[in-house]
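During the reporting period the student researcher (J.K.) took over the structure-prediction task from the postdoctoral fellow and processed the backlog of single-chain submissions. One of the processed entries is reproduced below for the supervisory committee.
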Amino acid sequence: MAYLRVLEKRNPTHNWKQIIAKLHADFYGYDLHQTIPIFKTPLFLHGADTKGFETVDSVCRVKVGEKWVPYSPKFVYLASGEEVDIAHLYAGPRSDMNRNGHYTISLDLLLLANTYAGDLYQVYFDSYTKFPLNQLRGDVMGVWMAQFYRLPKNRNVPFSSAMAILLREIGTKVGGYAQVARPQ
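J.K. obtained the following structure tokens:
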């Protein structure tokens, strides 16, 4: 949470969509131009919602060779101690961006393709090791976050605030991540 607050403070001219797009691209930039194999539908679109995401300063730096490069944390830990691959969360809301706010069944299917189904595809064609529980937790949280931002009253909520709401919701449910309620 502290990281997200610092990130938002350091990037006052960027909105939550640009921040999520940057965090997503930090880990899965190679997915930005991928399509669903059978339908050739782009997994992610580029446009007004994400324009300028490349200029978001992701705050943290790590040394790679002789260079310091931007770095986003990949894992967070729930109060229960369970590890979450937070980078998988970013794909949920990122999936909806630049789609003109038309939430249809096809957009729901695309959201699933960018979270659970994408990982299940990897398991089927590669290995079960491609889908550890920390990724599943991130997928669940990503679907929740996409649904949260689909609600008109939440469209301008900073990402750090949305994460605080999600983590509070998880903390109140028995069984943690698996019992996350639909956003209100």
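The committee noted the following: The helical segments are 2-10, 16-28, 86-96, 105-114, 116-125, 133-150, 159-171.
J.K. will present the remaining backlog at the next meeting.
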